[in-house]
Specification:
Clc chloride channel, 16 helices, about 0% strand, homodimer, about 70% helix, two-stranded parallel ribbon, mainly alpha
Chain lengths: ~400, ~400
Amino acid sequence: MKQLNRDFVEESVLLASTLKWILLSSFAGIVAGGTTSLFLNLLSYGIKITSSWSSYYLFLPFALFISSWLVIKFAPEAEGHGTEKVIESVHKRNGKINLKVIPIKTLATIITLSFGGSAGKEGPSAQIGAGTASFFANLLKLNQDDYRRFVICGISAGFAGVFGTPIAGAIFAAEVLYVGRFSYRVLLPALFASYISFFINRYFGISHFRYSIDVGSQNDFHMFIYMVVFGIVVGIVALFFIKTLTFFENLFKEKVQIYKPLKGFIGGIILIFVVWVTKSTDYLGLGTDVIDRAIHGDELTGLSFLGKIFTTSITLSTGGSGGILTPVFFIGSTLGNVWAQLVGGNIAMYSGIGMVALLAASANTPLAAITMSMELFGVQTATYASIASVVSYLIVGHHSVYPSQILTFSKT
Amino acid sequence: MKQLNRDFVEESVLLASTLKWILLSSFAGIVAGGTTSLFLNLLSYGIKITSSWSSYYLFLPFALFISSWLVIKFAPEAEGHGTEKVIESVHKRNGKINLKVIPIKTLATIITLSFGGSAGKEGPSAQIGAGTASFFANLLKLNQDDYRRFVICGISAGFAGVFGTPIAGAIFAAEVLYVGRFSYRVLLPALFASYISFFINRYFGISHFRYSIDVGSQNDFHMFIYMVVFGIVVGIVALFFIKTLTFFENLFKEKVQIYKPLKGFIGGIILIFVVWVTKSTDYLGLGTDVIDRAIHGDELTGLSFLGKIFTTSITLSTGGSGGILTPVFFIGSTLGNVWAQLVGGNIAMYSGIGMVALLAASANTPLAAITMSMELFGVQTATYASIASVVSYLIVGHHSVYPSQILTFSKT
């Protein structure tokens, strides 16, 4: 009888806590999804305006100057790429994010991306989502632990809003805080926020990519060996990307001691130079059209992935505002595309797998990568993607595009 | 230059360790997949023979007597359901498993299941796979840490061999050892062993279920609320199952002090009595035909899930040999089936989701459940299954069908 009573009390506590988090995280999904869909709509409006102009990128020096100035002047804590800042805030400030981050990050990112800065939109989305969540967490007077969980909902809401993959968004948020630890405590909140934000973004007209990849015969055993080799290649490219990014960040931070916005100006000039040399604007902006072509199976020429590594490093290290995952998808899919041509493989499939495997390696999120491959490409492609993703995740070692991730284990 | 050198050394170590584990785990997949496919083929042969007889279940008292006697006499450490024993061995004996477990568990399980004992085949598969791995780990003189990882490959090999879901098999193995901790260190080994075992089992004629569920309009918002409610129901039923199982285990362990195999005899008589009362053999054996009917969308009548909870608890607590996940899938899918009829929902969909959500709750493996729903039913069903799975996982609280799981966090 006593046992029955105790069980009943325990069950009531679990039920109450689960329902509380369903409500809280749905609310987080609503507010974070609302602000991110506003941001995404404004961004696509900005890109539409500038892209009507063929030489829009000539304004890049001014655009990066203004982006950098805006952030330094009004919200210096919003410097750097978005998700990284949210991870840092969760680990160091219990998730507290200044409200000013939201308008400043919105404006700076739109200016950076519309004029051709090479960066992503999921990072600012996560930052804007988490910032909104932090504001409401203050209003709701949440305790420290709940506060952090509530803010993390902003990461999944931002991710799902941008990429349209709610399950991967939730798993990404639970996986990205640490290297080698999955935060089960945030799984339910992140999942609900993810779905609600996904719905809201859809409702407000944000469209998401969906690819159909025909992998041919499933479970071809040779493919496993090919995937191991490809996973090693992706891991090494991820490492090269992280090293290049760090190199330019240190260079512009320590070696170039001038007024910060001027660094943005220099960055803009370098990017114009890249366009002039390559005679292409492919390496600028979000680059989603290139990702689309890669995964559609078009034979892309040249070493696009190297160009994108360079332009992204320059944009983010000189003061441009934006995220890092869209470039990761660009680099991964174009790498897969070129690799497939080299080894005579299925171009669309390698491009899709390259995209998620580079995510697994550069963000240390193999589970999010596997889930994303399932949501975007279906289970057949995921069969192979899972192999390439776990291999690249190990090969990249203890490096990350998010230096604030806390390392909890050794990969060897 | 120094930095470059250091990077090169670190990369070489990572590459060597990754390749080492690809080879080791492929080898584990070959040996574990080999023994499990032999076991599964013998089992299906056994079931084929007995099922040609309409009153095969009348031998149950003798079958459970012999199963129990075999295990007690020759491999007492193999008592109980399989995966649980592997978890215990990993936590308490660094993964060491006696070689005798393999033939004894094979024989005892075939006798139990062929004559109608209610249990699963994935547990013994995992145990047989892990036992084989342990044998070779001894031969290879692996160090303690490698030994454990190598044995864990047996769990994923067993799971993937039985259910044909390699990614879920790997995630299950990395997730099932602890409540609330994901073992990233075993992800790559588990994944390779999983795939290799899946191929080997396919090659040796083991067939796997694949269902196609039409969920109708995806992303219907109402469905989210329905899924929360259903997740709560599944969580409570999981709790009831775990409590019932524990109740009978304690009853037959502590209150009934007789020669152990005689308990099996009594268990067999109770099961015959169930057939006599219900006028059905549906609650006996593996019950995969009932799972098939449930997920196919047939309207099952009665409270099958209660019957199966009872017969499984009796079988496993009186000394029958077998696993627990196939019963979990039976209970979950028939619960979903009945629930769908009650609330007027899509019967096939609720049955499929009930199956994986009960897995999430009773084994504390929400990620494996979500992945499994993707692999078996596709991404559309997984959309809803993920919600029901994380809710049921929280609602079940700190209970598990695997008492050896180590609890690492509080769910409230």
